[in-house]
Amino acid sequence: MMERNVVEKKTDKQTVGVLEVIEPGLHTTVQDLGRHGYQKYGIGPSGVMDDYAFQLANILVGNEREEAGLEITMIGPSLRVLQDTVIAITGASLSPSLDRQPLPMWTSVYVKKGQEIRFGKPQSGVRAYLAVAGGIQVPEVMGSKSTNVKSRFGGLDGRALAAKDILPSMPMAKESVRLRKGKRLPRKMVPVCGQEASVRVLAGPQEGLFTAESVSAFYSTGFQISPQSDRMGYRLTGEKKLELRDNTEMITDAVATGAIQVPGNGEPILLMADRQTSGGYPKIANVISADLWKVAQRLPGQTIRFEKVTLAEAHEELREREQCLRQLQLAVRLLSRAPSLFPYEKFN
After folding, report:
1. Which residues are bridge partners to 234 per DSSP?
2. How far apart are CA 33 and CA 47, in angstroms?
3. C-alpha closest to that of 245 among 215, 289, 270, 286
4. What positions does the domain Carboxyltransferase occupy (predicted)?
5. Which CATH superfamily includes the segment(s) 196-309?
6. CB of 17 within 8 A of CB of 113?
7. First to last CA, the chain
């Protein structure tokens, strides 16, 4: 294992405390878009589960899309604002409030020193994201600020938030902060979390090892998410166990986020952000990148159905999403620099 003092990079930026944790919530962690290039050492990517909602939160507050923010799971934290700043909350609807008044989601909101951000009853989805202007500035570990709780590194001391934690950010001029408020995501871009999700997949490298009946069942029936699911992987249960044509052993090989492995019990495991880097179970399919957010926002007991697409279709979906995010980022930046040229009403 690499020595911690080799892989940890202290931030050389001047920072100020921007949020204080009053209550941590169920599982709130500092995350970014993940650490990459270390799988050969057995280090998975970590990072946010719903990268679409996370990037939108950063865009709305005027950050670069990869800046670290908070991933909030089901029961949100209570936070005290330590410096005037701008925040945005996206993803799951967990009834956010500011000084006990409803706090609009998918919108950049100006918050003042001393105010309190709280979350209430979950309405839809599983994971919410809170971005703050300037990002959450914690030391990088292997090029990322993401928390890997199981391996105990990244984020704040490799753990979920605890009461009295202080979250640092970049100091910003008041006028610069004020120009970042009031940006609302167009309704057509707000993702909807329904009770059942149709998730597009590519055929896995070992699809041919499964019986024709199992492959047919995989695409024609729904799978429920098991309570034994976490950031590492979602266990799925279906009407039919997935079976191999024979008991041929396969050599352990690399796995990707979204890979759907099938162990000996015939119940698939869908690998997520904190996945391992290799595995010996056959992979029947892999969720396309553009649809991973749908899985990340599913609750145990909810249903997922799989739809096969081609690699060209998966690439096109990703290109379209990227183009949309870039256009939105440009619009927000123009609004922040010269708001009078782009009336707020037109942006919405």
Report:
1. 270
2. 5
3. 215
4. 40-324
5. Cyclophilin-like (2.40.100.10)
6. no
7. 50
**Nearest CA-CA partner of 132 in 186, 191, 185, 67:** 67
- Give me the tens of pLDDT residue by residue for the chain, a chain 348 residues long: 344 444 566 666 789 999 999 999 999 999 999 999 999 999 999 999 999 999 999 999 999 999 999 999 999 999 999 999 999 999 999 999 999 999 999 999 999 999 999 999 999 999 999 999 999 999 999 999 999 999 999 999 999 999 999 999 999 888 888 899 999 998 888 998 777 789 999 999 999 999 999 999 999 999 999 999 999 999 999 999 999 998 877 889 999 999 999 999 999 999 999 999 999 999 999 999 999 999 999 999 999 999 999 999 999 999 999 999 999 999 998 887 755 444 433 333
Question: Could you tell me the residue ranges of all domains in the chain?
Answer: 4-191, 196-309
Calpha distance 28→72 (Å, rounded): 5
pTM for the model: 0.92
